[in-house]
Design brief:
- The complex is a heterodimer of chains A (438) and B (305).
- Helix content of chain A is 30%, strand content 19%.
- Chain A is α/β, with parallel strands linked by helices.
- Among the domains of chain A are: 157 residues, NADH-ubiquinone oxidoreductase 51kDa subunit (Rossmann fold, 3-Layer(aba) Sandwich), CATH 3.40.50.11540; 73 residues, no CATH class.
- A six-stranded mixed β-sheet of chain A has the order 1-14-13-17-15-16. Chain A has a four-stranded antiparallel β-sheet with strand order 2-8-7-4, with no helix packed on it.
- The relative contact order of chain A is 0.14.
- Chain B has one domain: Ammonium transporter fold (Orthogonal Bundle).
- Helices cover 61% and strands 0% of the residues of chain B.
- The chains are: A alpha/beta (438), B mainly alpha (305).
- The interface between A and B is large, with 68 and 40 residues.
Chain lengths: 438, 305
Amino acid sequence: MAFSLHGVHVPHRKNTADTAAVPMAAPKTVTIPLGMHIGTPAVPAVKVGDHVDVGTLIAEQNGGISSPVHASISGTVKAITSQLQANGQKVAAIVIESDGANTPDPAIAPPTVTNREELVDAIRRSGIVGLGGAGFPTYVKFNADPEQVDELVINGAECEPYITSDSLTMTERAEDMAYALKALETYLGIKKVIIGIENNKKNAIARMKELEKEDPHVKVVTLPAVYPQGGEKVLVYHTTGKVIPAGKLPLDVGCIVCNCTTLASIGSYLKTGMPLVEKCITVDGSAVKEPKNVIVPIGTSMEEVFAFCGGFKEEPGKVLYGGPMMGVAVPDLSAPVMKNTNAILAFDQKDAAPAKETACIRCGACYNHCPFGINPSAIERAYKAGDTASMEKWGVDTCMECGCCAFVCPASRPLVQTNKLAKAALKAARAAEKEAEK
Amino acid sequence: MGKLHISVSPHLHSGRSTQGIMRDVVFSLLPATAAGIALFGLSAVWVVLTCVFTAVLSEALFNFIIKKEQTVGDWSAVVTGLLLALNLPANIPLWQAVIGTVFAIVIVKCFFGGIGCNVVNPAITGRVFMLIAFGSMAQAAFPVDSTAAATPLVQLGEGTVPDLLELFLGKCGGSIGETSVLALLIGFIYLLVRKVISWHLPVVYIGTVFLFTFAVQGDLTVALAYILSGGLFLGAIFMATDYVTSPATPAGKLIFGLGAGIITVLIRLWGNYPEGVSFAILLMNILNPYIEAWTPRKVFGGKKA
């Protein structure tokens, strides 16, 4: 590789590293949103009053990029409501009231997999989506022409502060990962597997090195702990040297990128046939009394998970889905744990207080720290001037919203927000241009 | 349950602030300030205090009059005042220092929109304004125990090579903060360690002056004497690296440093003024938008097809 992409040194704060995950008992009710993935939301397959068991299909996949949804507890369907998502859209959600028994669905059995089609279909039926946070339906990725795939890159970077659930997967669920890799190698013809891990996860690296010894296709690559090492394009570049062109996918350069927990979940589904109904998440942040990794039934409200972790030291000022660099702030604690939730963090009032924005001093820190060479301060000026050509020129299309720019900005300017707005403005301008051409 | 804050990510900040950066610049200038006071005596103290006080007061008054949010708390006015003071001879009449500072802050900085909006460096422009407006700027001050009658650059122009160690320590005529290269280097190291600036611009600027002078003069000692003389280190480390008026990318910084170095030598060796650092930086400030446009970083993955 010619050189490393730029980035920032974020504080690690991996307070929950190397502590075993604690399972949480089924809550009284769960609210399971049907849009826990990128793509079309699933459609309900149950009616109010129906009895469901753990693993029962409650919503069907809808269209090519979608994912089925399963019950995470046993009990009765209480309601089909709608849930406000972080992106501002409302999606249907199924509320299940527990019968306290937590009975697994009797129909659950390991899937029969003898060829590529069956493997892809099994992954589809498992309801597994990108568990690193993106939530892209996993089967779609693996439904690629095997000729096109040179390598499978397993994302174990976990570059966000606080989050340790992925490194826990690598230390505790390595067998599941190995099981899934065997299937992928056998039926998809994958010959090269690269596991990329940041160098601050010694135990995960040690465990994955054992896996490397057992499986000749696997190679573990230790990466410097520089944020955003786990960004898909960053990881592919640092592990394979391949540059994913703007607007393209890893598959366009012969790669499939899969998060390590996603991989482990595929392994356990192939072994047991139990779809994705629970999730190991990191619960941490300055307002949380007992930070820990918790195995949570999907659909459990944040409130109950925080209560399970001893509640709050003080009233939180900000609560997030995901890490502090790219996580999404929620308006209240009724928000449920979803498939792609890897952490929930609660911060005290001091950490939550918004910083005072001052004038840009043109120091170039945002520009020089951007992994992709985008110039956020120039984009900000272009956005204010309504100059879409300049927004495009300075690379706003390529922005992955990793937050390095705003993290380093001495003037505390909301540069990610402006980049998002600029992207939307550019999109609108392009649409208007197309309209005018008609 | 109180209301939860909602904001776009990131929810974590490095802790760097404009105020912190400006304060670091002030700290980095303290060795040079102390050296200036030690060399030129009490009159240097008065010049420094006058400039800093005038800078802060004029920015505060300007903001008050135009009803703009007060910005003096960011310490940038202190930086401009201190930098201008270090660029003045210790024997400058204080009323002239006041006028120069007001010009730098109000006309060069505030009229253009305040911090981050100025087109040229306020302290440099203030100095150039005074150089043209006041004859006393040409009459250099000399250290209290010095017997020299001319500044090193004037001596070099007449064919005399001053003692290199004396130049390095600053025992020669000149502005308050420009003579002690040792003190300026301490400040440079501090700025590098604190990651306020990068090495590119100062090193290329000083290196260009050295190589160009050596190529013309053909003598190592003379070339060394030239870089240790005048305001080169002060200008290259503290003025040329001003964020707003210098390029953001390493490639841009190299071009800026190269250009400033060439202009400095041209003025020093063939121009009417003995020193060319201020003019060189000012000219490169004006070219800065073009340099920035020529030296963008490459966007990863290229343009969207």
